[in-house]
Design a protein that fits this description.
The protein is of the alpha/beta class. The protein is 26% helix and 36% strand. Helix 1 packs across helix 2 and helix 6 runs antiparallel to helix 8. 27% of the residues are buried.
């Protein structure tokens, strides 16, 4: 209570009143310098002595006894609070009027029946609220009397059962909460705006928020205690303790907990995307993690610049464009990766998985779908009615599929059309009415053969030049003067002959006369040598081209461990060049393998046996 309560400096405690109660001419007072527990003991003593408080201000009475926190100081003397008019006796006969009180758990009920006539035939005076308070106190109900309802019924004089007192339930406090403090972690599901200004109604603007390093993400709002309650006996019922949160339990990878003057926060430790797992832990990563699936309701179509991991499904007609895509649920839509790995841990049904620069791996069933890896491998557990293309394709069980690659490895193939440079199949056969077709891709060797023919022709030309120049040189060497000079020069060079001075003069004149002829002989001999070298180079080039032809042809190989039903193997010629044979639209792949329009050569056609075949070009 405040210091404005009526101070009575000269008040004295009436004889017989318990300590804490003061009787004056103006009324009965509580001494506020006494603790509430002592005041309750004083009231207990008063009521047990067969007395009551008339003219009781029950609201003030209840507030002072149970809700006053501490004794009040009285710097200017005693501080008193008037709570009743006077103390009066409570006769036993009057107590009998309140015997119908029943206490049921947290409520006290009383049936206000008509008062019976007394022994003298007179109806007793009406029941009084102050008497009810004293009687209930003696029966253990010290708190929670509904004074308004009781007084109204007493005034009305009706016969009625009502609840006269209720316990006060404790009021829970506020649990600790996490408050979002960064706009960067909020999604924006508005339609994405296209470069031409139009809106893409199939895509959201910012489904996966991205934050910067040091950005504050979450703030801890600590819990606040609740208010205590009271049972009917006036005992304190404490409120439940508020739930507290430890920021460390919600701060995942890429985040840290930091303490600032204005509170505790979860802060981003790096630039990246916001991920929140099923336990509510927030993390920052350069990979996007989603758990809601890809649909028109959740994410719309996605065009991402980061790795993507999805725990839900990708629904029909929805697309995910990104890199390094991992899907834990079924995929019915379209996946397009620009690199990394496309990994489907369940099924691909009626959708597409296209990777430009990486591998595709599907652990479940692929059905009625398109799977392509232009610069990577395709690994499938089971494929049904699919179009599959890649650098290397490995499948456990394939049925009714069109498959094209550089290398194909299948454990069990049924009713498939397979084209590759290297084919290895454990067991192959038809499926119902669909035949089993294998097309080992053999190179078009005509360009190499043309180069070989051209090199042989040029070698023959160099041989003709060599022979012609040799004939011309032999004709010059048969001339008399040339033959004599060459014979004489040989003897002099070997020391078989010594010339006299006169002979030397004649020799020099002869050498001067045939010098032009000797120069022509030297030229012809040089041309003969050059022709020999050029011819040898052409023949060596021919040998290299033949080895290249043989090695290129040897890359085409087909192995069938077991033929179980009608199976046809036909070599299909493909042109050499940088273009990849499997880099084609799905419709073209199906048309190529099922129509077999390119030139083919029968290799094998049987319903039993096995095959080990390597392409051998004609000599």
């Amino acid at each position: 209570m405040s210091d404005d309560d009526t101070p009575v400096p000269d008040a004295n405690q009436a004889p017989g009143l318990p300590h804490g109660l003061v009787q004056r001419h103006e009324g009965v007072y509580f001494d506020l310098s006494v603790a509430p527990a002592q005041l309750r003991a004083a009231v207990e003593q008063l009521f047990q002595s067969g007395q009551l408080l008339l003219g009781l201000d029950y609201a003030l009475f209840l507030l002072t006894l149970f809700h006053a926190p501490t004794p009040r100081a009285a710097p200017k003397g005693e501080a008193l609070l008037r709570i009743a008019a006077r103390v009066a006796p409570f006769p036993p006969l009057r107590r009998l009027l309140y015997k119908q009180i029943k206490i049921r758990g947290d409520v006290a009920e009383f049936y206000f029946e008509a008062l019976p006539p007394g022994t003298d035939g007179q109806v007793p005076a009406r029941r009084e609220f102050d008497e009810l308070v004293a009687d209930l106190w003696g029966k253990g109900v010290r708190y929670g009397i509904d004074s308004l309802a009781v007084r109204a019924l007493l005034d009305a004089g009706k016969a009625e059962r009502i609840t006269v007192a209720r316990a006060l339930a404790p009021q829970p406090g506020r649990d600790a909460q996490l408050v979002e403090v960064s706009q960067g972690i909020h999604r924006d599901d508005a339609p994405r705006e296209r470069p031409d200004g139009r809106l893409d109604l199939l895509s959201f603007k910012n489904r996966f928020p991205q934050v910067k390093k040091h950005a504050r993400l979450l703030r801890l709002l600590r819990g606040a205690p609740g208010l205590p309650g009271f049972d009917l006996a006036g005992n304190v019922v404490p409120p439940p303790a508020p739930l507290e949160l430890d920021l460390a339990t919600v701060a995942g990878a890429g985040t840290v907990v930091e303490h600032f003057s204005d509170g505790d926060f979860v802060v981003a430790a790096l630039d990246g995307y916001v991920n929140i797992d099923e336990h509510g832990k927030i993390s920052i990563d350069n990979k996007i993690v989603s758990r809601e699936g890809v649909s028109s309701r959740t994410t719309g179509n996605l065009k991402l610049r980061a790795a993507y991991e999805e725990y839900g499904e990708v629904q029909e007609q929805r697309s995910v464009d990104g890199s390094d895509i991992t899907i834990h649920g079924d995929v019915y839509g379209h996946l397009h990766s620009h690199g990394g790995l496309i990994w489907l841990q369940r099924n691909l049904v009626g959708g597409t998985a296209f990777n430009e620069h990486g591998d595709v791996r599907i652990d479940g069933v692929s059905s009625g779908s398109v799977v392509q890896a232009l610069s990577g491998e395709v690994h499938l557990e089971r494929a049904e009615s699919c179009v599959i293309a890649g650098t290397r394709v490995v499948i456990d069980h394939a049925s009714n599929c069109e498959i094209i690659a550089d290398e194909v490895v299948i454990e069990l193939a049924e009713g498939c059309a397979v084209a590759a440079r290297t084919i290895r199949i454990g067991s192959a056969g038809p499926r119902k009415q669909v035949e089993m077709l294998l097309f080992p891709l053999v190179p078009d060797l005509r360009p190499l053969e043309q180069k070989i023919a051209e090199s042989l022709a040029r070698a023959a030309q160099f041989l003709q030049v060599q022979q012609k120049r040799q004939q011309e040189n032999d004709a010059i060497a048969q001339l008399p003067e040339v033959r004599n000079y060459l014979l004489l020069a040989g003897q002099l060079r070997r020391g078989e002959l010594q010339l006299q001075p006169a002979q030397q003069v004649q020799y020099d004149k002869l050498a001067a006369r045939i010098a032009p002829v000797l120069k022509e002989v030297a030229r012809l001999r040089l041309e003969v040598k050059q022709s020999e070298i050029s011819q040898a180079q052409m023949l060596a080039q021919v040998e290299q081209l033949r080895l290249q032809r043989q090695a290129t042809a040897g890359q085409s190989h087909c192995t069938l461990g077991l033929v179980d039903g009608e199976t046809t193997v036909r070599a299909m010629v493909v042109p050499q060049g940088p273009a990849k044979v499997y880099d084609r639209p799905p419709k073209e792949i199906k048309a190529l393998l099922r129509s077999a329009t390119p030139a083919t050569q029968l290799v094998f056609a049987d319903s039993t046996g096995s095959l080990e075949w390597t392409y051998q070009p004609p000599p």
